[in-house]
Amino acid sequence: MFETAIQKFISTNNFSEFTPKAIFFDMDGVLFDSMKYHARAWTNAMRDIGIHFSEYECYMNEGRTGHSTIDLAFNREYGRDATEDEKQEIYRIKSRYFESYGQSSVMPYARELLQKVKNQGLQIFLVTGSGQVSLLDGLQVHFPSIFKKERMVTAFDVTQCKPHPEPYLQTLKKSGFIRSEVAVVENAPLGVESAKAAGLFVIAVNTGPLDEKVLWDSGADIVLDSMEVLFQKWENFHQQL
Ligand code: CA
Prior knowledge:
Largest sheet: 6 strands, parallel
Number of domains: 2
Mean pLDDT: 94
Number of helices: 11
CATH superfamily of the largest domain: HAD superfamily/HAD-like
CATH class of the largest domain: Alpha Beta
Structural class: alpha/beta
CATH architecture of the largest domain: 3-Layer(aba) Sandwich
Bound molecules: calcium ion
Radius of gyration: 17 Å
Strand order of the largest sheet: 3-2-1-4-5-6
């Protein structure tokens, strides 16, 4: 399964080989089982200001920064971007809802997979559109000595969010590796689009309610059902390299 995807990636890109030295991990829906809380928080915050924004829409737009999500809703509702004040206020409401749901749990098998990747000597980078401080702080608590600040690109580092390639291009630059030396783990359609637009190999894990077709259509090189499946198949992937 990986072999076919890797061969296709190599030939499409005219690479002589594919030898990952770093794995770029998305955060929400990959490392934390947090998307259900984000979706509920967005739906409630938007409802408070009179905008209908469904949880399904949240999953389809997962990966955008908060400000971009707010602009999307405003453009549909009012035909304009939100003002800075409006964005700050709505994001504050969304964050308050999010924090009120309690701690997001670690995605099953995320910790085990990260440890395995680390033991194999591969470098680990984080690429997230999130600016949710509790989750970013939580990385050090839940995944001790895995993530280093200089190996993270968050909402605070980019001007363009996913699905734009900037987050992944910036991480690539930060890593010092070339495209054939990197693999991405993503769960959301816009995240996959972003990484593919940056020219990277993408393993999608379908941890949410979307049909897996959405992830294939976004350009994922491989789609798996869960982080557990990725953990179980990791050796299979690693042996192909
Ligand atoms: Ca995600």
